[in-house]
């Protein structure tokens, strides 16, 4: 709902908002421009001081009124030789100051901003724009909170790439000033249409001077001597020779009236609340006199055109990939297989589309719809395949948020089902919605025909494996060709290969590459390797920093029958390969200290780079599991060097084929004391390696953390438990 309103309002009012934002950005420079004008120093100066200086500098004029402008300058209205005039004055010397003329662009932009230069009718348009902006900021906040996983996650990293990612990131930064701008714009519009009082309609009630004495110089009047100039907004002089008239001084909160002969305060008339409120609303909307806020408004206004363009692009892309454009999509009445898709970023849709094409080619009548389009009547469907991503903190993606209620209304039917979850292991609620959807299907239709399969980080490899299982289940040959958008690749050259572990059968190799132009990466990022014989790239964790190291390094275990690992391990020095970098923002060296790194086998890779660049000597412990110290001595020389140079504090190796046999989790248990101390001092745990090891580590850390009232889940939620698991 929020998304539809956000899109409709954003697209529908795009031109209006664009004009308001650009003119608003120009006007937001005005308070900064005013700062350039000569500023007057008024600390310690009273009204009496200013009036004395004025009378000395211009004895012949008849002063009527002094107004303090938004820019802080004092403007005098006076009569001189029967001609009325206004001039800026220096409050200390009373001298006239040169007119600081506002550039014409501000006048034009103000007119454009307030009424699109259409006068009264244009004001309605401006009000509609303000209302639209308010709706956008409110719906945008809902969408953002949903994306982040709730209010508690408001400071968590914003996920997502490209335009959509920047849209969300900027949205989080600027939603508040934009909301304030929109709400205050609406208020000002309401005032201009007389729907809200401006406070100006209530005139101050002027009293009369009590005495009729000889004229007294105003600077000798007690009340004026005691009124500091910085409190003053306006001074109205008594009309000469009108004995009843008074001195009227408007401060931020009241009109104060002084007897013109005695200087005694006669009365005080508070400025109406509506007037004071309007002043505050004006200040929030225009930032007059508060230049830091003007800068915030300027940046927010400038971001609006980006929001509109990126929003339109994301909406268009979504439409292009939307459900209506499926070729050979079987009608519900004819379908035997129903593919239900839960997606937000659309990649799940592409996976489903590839499956749909293959099913069609294999002669199956398949219908593909979003999960929210779950039909009430399944007609002739005999198999449901639910493919869904997870968002927020374990929530349904946008196109599946009504699935559970819709499923409840679906007529019971003899139907088989299976689910495929798309998620990211970096989230504590990995594939949670896929599990919820699967449970609901089980509740409705009984056990699934294939166990729920989880796909981490859109792994094409895992998807292919699942497709093979589906192919076997359906007893048909399925040729699923998923074409994940192939990223831009770079060619890199093998510099050296160091091989370990040959004596124990399986080998592990450290491969170092160079290139004329290395792709930018940091330790913890992932590299996609495009092997010639493979349609899908393989992912490896990076142990190098392109800029600091000048090379790209990965650790590869030769897997029996593994096409990519064997191909990589057999490469000759100088061989060239194509790669692309996948940023892994959730698995970077944390800023918080200390850090406990835990890994096994090739899982050492990202840690090597992080430790190598730990020049500040932050406390880092590395627990790592290998088979035997004689054969799996990966990075042995580097590790002693890091220990000496204090880049690494503790190295805790665990050898599974040594005596005593130990796994890395056993090593953690042995170092319980130190680990607890680390956790107490706010350590971040980083785990890299296979799923089984990661699960074992998580159990141990959970037990350990419980001793200080924490849990692995809680650590994960607060970004103190980071995993890179494969
Ligand atoms: C903002 C955001 C939140 C996410 N939250 C989760 C989550 O809680 N659990 C999970 O397993 N994956 C999570 N993911 C990962 C996505 O489910 C995963 O990338 C999926 O493949 C995206 O599919 P889609 O492109 O079809 O939407 C999240 C991704 C993003 C961008």
How would you describe this structure to a colleague?
This protein has 726 residues and is of the alpha/beta class. The protein has five domains: 2-31 and 105-198 and 293-315, no CATH class; 41-99 and 205-271, no CATH class; 323-474, Rossmann fold, CATH 3.40.50.360; 490-586, Elongation Factor Tu (Ef-tu), domain 3; 589-725, 3-Layer(aba) Sandwich (Rossmann fold), CATH 3.40.50.80. The chain is 39% helix and 20% strand. Strand 2 and strand 3 (83-89) form a beta hairpin. Helix 7 (162-192) packs antiparallel against helix 9 (273-286) and helix 12 (403-409) runs parallel beside helix 13 (432-445). 37% of the residues are buried. Flavin mononucleotide binds next to helix 11 and strand 12. Flavin mononucleotide (FMN) is lined by residues 147, 159-160, 343-348, 389-394, 397, 422-424, 427, 429-431, 458.
Bound molecules: flavin mononucleotide
Span of the ends, CA to CA? 36 Å
Structural class call reads alpha/beta
Helix content: 25-40%
- Could you name the ranges where pLDDT drops below 50 across 5 or more consecutive residues? none
Number of strands: 24
Instruction: Using the 3D structure, state the CATH architecture of the largest domain.
Output: 3-Layer(aba) Sandwich
What is the CATH domain class of the largest domain?
Alpha Beta
- Write down the Rg: 36 Å
Biggest sheet statistics? 8 strands, antiparallel
The largest beta-sheet arranges its strands as 4-3-2-1-5-6-7-8
CATH topology of the largest domain: Rossmann fold
- Beta strand %: 15-25%
Look at the structure and give the mean pLDDT: 89
Number of helices: 22
Number of structurally distinct domains: 5
Question: What's the shape?
Answer: elongated
Q: Can you identify the CATH superfamily of the largest domain?
A: Flavodoxin domain
Domain Flavodoxin-like: 337-471
Enzyme class: oxidoreductase
Domain FAD-binding FR-type: 487-590
EC number: 1.6.2.4
